[in-house]
Amino acid sequence: MSLFEKLQTVIVISAVGLGISLGQVSYIEQVAEYFIVPFLLFMLYGLFLSVPSKDLKKALLNRKFASSSLIINFLWTPLLAWGLGAVFLSEHPALWIGFIMLMVTPCTDWYLAFTGIAKGSVALSTAILPMNLILQVLLLPIYLLLFTGVMKMVGMSVLLKSIILVLLLPFLLANLTTYIFNKRKQKETYKKIIVPFFENTQIIFLSLAIVAMFASQGRNLFENMNVVMLLFIPVILFFIINFLLGRIVSHFLKMSYEDSVSLNLTTLARNSPIALAIAVTAFPDKPLIALALVIGPLIELPVLAVVSQLLLTIRRNGKVSKNILGD
After folding, report:
1. Which of 134, 171, 268, 289 is deepest in the core (most CB within 10 A)?
2. Residue 89 in 3-state DSSP?
3. pLDDT by residue (tens digit) across 210-247?
4. Distances (CA, A) of 44 to 1, 38, 169
5. What is the DSSP annotation of 157-216?
6. Which architecture does CATH list for 3-319?
7. 36: closest CA among 205, 161, 175, 162?
């Protein structure tokens, strides 16, 4: 592992701290939100460049992964989120709603970068994204009705905008780039310069997106640090429980290391941007709900960075064990 790869966890955590610090400057706080999506697009564009389209087709046929991922994300996780909220947030209903909204919306963007960092199957993770995105928006009103007694429908425009921006646009641009280089018979340039460049800069674009996200809400975080403490334990427990569940399920189903990484990260990472957009429009009179969705990534991103390194350690230890047994 290179020094840069070893420092990825530190880079992500530093990006969170830098974003919060920059958010204390009024002008930066006001404009930061406009940079989140562009940085995520560059990150996803680079990821899609390194994933052949034929791998996406194969990934869609992986029934073990698809079924286990959807069951964990849309049956188990809502129950876990409600249970943790009932134990730790019952006296704070607005935070409870925000916590549920965060936990029932699987990530559709930056978790792909962590999948790549942990050497998982980006193709497999990408293949499940459209289903995750559609189901989370369609099911969120039902979860809110069942668990909180609140029914707020999500506009179709939010769904379409999310699909186009965070998935379809970078995917099409990446495939267009591949097509152009192949058409001009510049495959070597594409493979040796273009793809490696974007593979090496994915963590940079991810970090810039993180900086922008936390800069846009940094002041609110400092003014409500007590909310951070209230959410810390249930959020951490969620990640621990789902990480262990993912390892157990992948072991039981005899998944490869790459597939197990994809399962772990698609069932851990949450979609705070889309949940935040929904909360702001659906609950304009309850700012604590939106604040909970900002605080979630403050805990989540360092956890994902640590998990990606932990998975790499598991991978290395597995290889060492195989070599010993082979000898």
Report:
1. 289
2. coil
3. 788 778 777 767 777 788 889 999 999 999 999 999 99
4. 23, 10, 9
5. HHHHHHHIIIIIHHHHHHHHHHHHHHHTT-HHHIIIIIHHHHHHHHHHHHHHHHHHHHHT
6. Up-down Bundle (1.20)
7. 205
d(CA 299, CA 173): 32
The two three-digit tokens of residue 269, written as one number = 């990472």
User: Would you say 275 and 102 are in contact if contact means Cβ atoms under 8 Å apart?
Assistant: yes
For residue 316, give the nearest of 122, 121, 125, 118 by alpha carbon.
Answer: 118
Cα–Cα distance between 49 and 313 in angstroms, integer? Answer: 26
Tokens (6 digits) for 209: 């997106």
Q: Say which range, 89-103, 162-176, 252-266, has the weakest mean pLDDT.
A: 162-176
Residues present in the chain in total: 327
Angle, alpha carbons 57-61-65 (nearest 5°): 115
In order of 39, 63, 264, 314, the CA distances from 318 in angstroms are: 34, 25, 17, 6
